[in-house]
Amino acid sequence: MPGTDSLPRTLGALRNSLFSEDRLRHRTIKDELRENLICRLQRKEPLFPGIVGYEETVAPQVVNALLSRHNFILLGLRGQAKTKLIRMLVQLLDEYTPFIEGSEIRDNPYHPVSKYGRERIAEMGDGTPIDYLTRDERYVEKLATPDVTIADMIGDIDPIKAARRGHNISDELTVHYGLLPRANRGIFAVNELPDLAGKIQVGLFNIMQEGDVQIKGYPVRLPLDVLLVFTANPEDYTARGKIITPLKDRIGSEIRTHYPVSVEHGMEITGQESWTSRTSPVEVQIPVYIREVVENIAFLARDDKRIDKRSGVSQRLPITVTENMISNAERRALKAGETFTVPRVVDIYAALPSITGKLELEYEGELKGGDSIARELIRTAVGKVYSNYFEGTNMNAVIKWFELGGNVRLDESVDAATMVQQFDGIQGLLERTGELGLTENEPDAVRAGAAEFILEGLYAHRRVARSEQYEFTAGERRREGQREREREEGEPPSRKTKRQYQ
Q1: Cβ distance 345 to 452 under 8 Å?
Q2: Can you give the pLDDT at residue 58?
Q3: Regions in the chain scoring below 50 on pLDDT
Q4: pLDDT computed for residue 411 by the predictor
Q5: Alpha helices, DSSP H, located in 196-315
Q6: Is the Cβ–Cβ distance between 27 and 149 less than 8 Å?
Q7: Contact criterion met (CB below 8 Å) for 109 and 26
Q8: pLDDT given at position 498
Q9: What is the C-alpha separation between 125 and 129, in angstroms, rounded?
Q10: Residue 354: which of 317, 405, 385 has the closest Cα?
Q11: Does 438 reside within a domain?
């Protein structure tokens, strides 16, 4: 193993090293995590780098659970970084951990729990070979599914092993160990715990409580040293009741996770997790207002009554929308022969497939249809972000241009320079892009994207109309004005003439 050449390789050498018997014999995995966590807290080092928005809520509770030496469970809806958080616990483990070479359950050299480990030391004494585990090798994760068996989790009798070695089938040396024993002296994580069959949960509880288990009717003593961490959806945990009471009672801390509480936190997570830095002949620059629109889609969806709140709206939604949106902008630039592009609102609409699959709809939503609801969410998000930038801004010149009969159709396939020429003909439109922080020297792609955002914002607020073919025309305001003028002028001449001849 690279990096371990200088470490002691026999039990005798181990006793005279940093891994002395006084230090390791009675030091459990929970003691180790606690000691290393205390050191990090004293040095004021970041505990969970990359986990955004949990600094004042979830992270302190996880710290408290570790300091208390608790097994714990993270309860939260999908896409709340539960798995990412528990995987980061390995950073709190020692860099290297010695174990008896050849031991399937990584026996502590000073306190072996398997028959193999005890016999090895009895036979070889201080000459017992020692090997080492890295941090990552001490983390075992299992996704709970109904088909998981006791053999998968705990172990099973291996008759072939018994026959080859000439052992009695009830001998512990004939056991083929499952995931949990192989996680000895490490962290064992079970995702979606309620989906684990009740009898398997009993096996977990028995290991936690008594340190033993029965395999095919043969009792096996396994006082394992593990930190057990679970994740679950709160609806499964409380409503469906699939976690057995003894196991639930044995879990020391129950910690609730949550979605980002602010758009800013959400944008930070999305920017961190989405694949935006990609090798491409096209340089892509995402404006802040577009990032805000994408994040607001998720926030609006979580509050929408037509979307099932029990399933939640995963943070993966804005992540995948961002990736899909960039790809559409990239595709458009490649077709137009451009080397620089900016995602526009039309690219967010093109990312509908990355939205609809992440929305679990209620009955009312099913009647409306996922595609229609996704479009409404985009439109509402655009309107909300538009208001943040243009609240109180006079847009009458732009609206008047449409009311006087102007219209513009946005062709996604045209290059940015052509779009800017189109927008330049709309009175006052490009001048208003300065509200988004743009200058006159900005590239055409930046100016075109900003101008389109303004038109989409006016459309979201029903100041102008837009067809499904992205043709912008006068909105409801113009039609109301026409009806008002008709009322003021009286009946149209055609109606008067018709009534006179009746």
Answers
A1: yes
A2: 96
A3: 1, 239, 493-502
A4: 86
A5: 198-209, 234-235, 245-250, 263-273, 288-303
A6: no
A7: no
A8: 38
A9: 10
A10: 317
A11: yes
